[in-house]
Amino acid sequence: MGKVIGIDLGTSNSAAAVLEGGKPKIIPSAEGASLYGKAFPSVVAFTKDGQMLVGEPAKRQSISNPDGTITGAKR
To answer: Which of 21, 55, 58, 70 keeps 20 to 30 A from 41, CA to CA?
Structure first.
């Protein structure tokens, strides 16, 4: 059977988890420690060369690319 993923899309930070052995397991951030290494900033960026960045990489370039960076979105 396939795995189910749960995603928490927060305004400031996001996180994801899967069920393993009947218990949720947080998927660690690939970018290292950010909010205990388990969550990542809710930031998306589009670079001038067409690349899409999410999380820490998007946050790091937000000063140099403010027009291509989304840092806060509400539904």
So the answer is: 21
Radius of gyration in angstroms for the set of CA atoms belonging to the chain, rounded to a whole number = 14
Hey, what long-range contacts does 45-48 have (CB within 8 A, 24 or more apart)? Answer: 45/69, 45/70
- Segment 8-33 shows an average pLDDT of 83
Q: Calculate mean pLDDT across residues 5-14.
A: 86
CA-based end-to-end distance of the chain: 33
Following CA atoms 50, 75, 8, 4 in sequence, which dihedral angle do they give, to the nearest 10 degrees? -80
8 Å CB contact between 1 and 18: no
Task: List the domains of the chain with CATH numbers.
Answer: 5-70 (3.30.420.40)
What does the DSSP 8-state code read for residue 59?
H
